[in-house]
Each structure stands twice: as structure tokens, then as C-alpha cells.
Amino acid sequence: MLFAATGAALVGLTFTQTEDDIRYNEKLTLLRKLNTIIPADSYNNDLLLDTIIVKPSTLLSTKEESLAYRARKNSDNVAVVLTSIAANGYNGPIYLLVGIKTDGSLSGVRVVKHRETPGLGDVVEISRSDWILGFDGKSLDNPNERGWKVKRDGGVFDQFTGATITPRAVVEAVHNALLYFKKNQQILFSVQAVKAKQHD
Fold first, then answer.
1. What is the pLDDT of residues 135-145, one digit of tens each?
2. Which range marks the domain in which residue 155 is found?
3. What is the per-residue pLDDT across 89-122, written as a single tens digit (0 to 9) for each?
4. What is the C-alpha separation between 33 and 123, in angstroms, rounded?
5. Backbone angles phi, psi at 79, to 5 degrees
6. Which residues, in sequence order, are CB contacts of 140 under 8 Å at separation 6+?
7. Is residue 194 part of a domain?
């Protein structure tokens, strides 16, 4: 019992001493991901602190509150990064970070979590291919409504050989994130960190 108590105390002490380091490393990892979407030289505020809580939304396919990260330069709005979920992935939901500039164009999209088939659906990852970069600069007007589909469905976005469900789900999720941004832009860029009131 003495050894067990000593061991538990040591584990607790180690956790307490490393907890701050773990949180710091998690923040650094998140910041690196955000900076692949919004380049660090395009803003000068603290991206991790300038956030707003976004309520669950059918357009974002979120069932829980999430954070939107807002980029500003000299108090001018630059872009916002939203969490969006492609709910209809082949093997389950695909979690995305979607960066949208104030003009409504995409600054970038990254997949942060998925369970798609290795060698097929995982091509949505930037580490596997540059397919995800095809969203850069796109907007609700570029392409038009019809174009926001994979080529097999009459749109402009490539699908993968042997895997259409995954890119189809991601394209739909990114398009829906743009629709959400259009409806909620003023709230998303509000100066005070208030909870977004819109749901769709």
C-alpha cells in the first residue's frame, strides 16, 4: 500500500509539473495549424485569444459550441477560422478548419481529424496530397452554386480515384461554412467576444 501511495503521489506530481507544458505545446500546435490557413504576417493580433464562441449550427454540422479564431491587422478584420464538420465522410465525420477572409474568399482549409481509408480518403490531408489547396481563393461566387460539387456530380472539384464520398463530403462542408460566414459575418467579427446568436 505504501508503494502504491508513493507511486500515485509521484504520478500526480509529475502531471502537475507537466500540465502547463502540455497546454503550451497544444497551443503551439494549434497556432501552427492556424498559420497554415492564415499566414502569420497577415495579422498582428493574438489569434488564440481573439476568439468568439459559435453555437451549434446545422450549416457547420456542429452539435457543440466551438471557437472561431479571428485575425486582425492594426484593428482591421482580416479573416476568421471556423470549425466545420463534413458529417458524411466514408468512415465517419471529417473535422475541418476553414479560413475565410473578410471578402468571403477562402484563405485555406485543413483537415484536423478523420477516419477515412488510408491510401484513398486520407488524400484530403495536406501531408498526403495538395488536393485541399484547391479551395484556396474560392468563394460562393467562384465557382457558382452548381460548381460547388465534385466533377462527377457536375462541379469543379476533383474527386479521388476510387473514392468520391470523401471529397464530396468535404466540398459540401466547405461550401456550407461559406454560407454560414455570409449569414454571420458581422457577429463573427464583432469586437467583443460574444456568443454567436445565429444557428444556420
1. 999 999 999 99
2. 37-188
3. 777 888 899 999 999 999 999 988 766 556 555 6
4. 17
5. -165, 165
6. 104, 175, 178, 179, 182
7. no
In a domain, 196, yes or no: no
pTM for the structure as a whole: 0.82
On whether residue 41 sits in a domain, the answer given is: yes
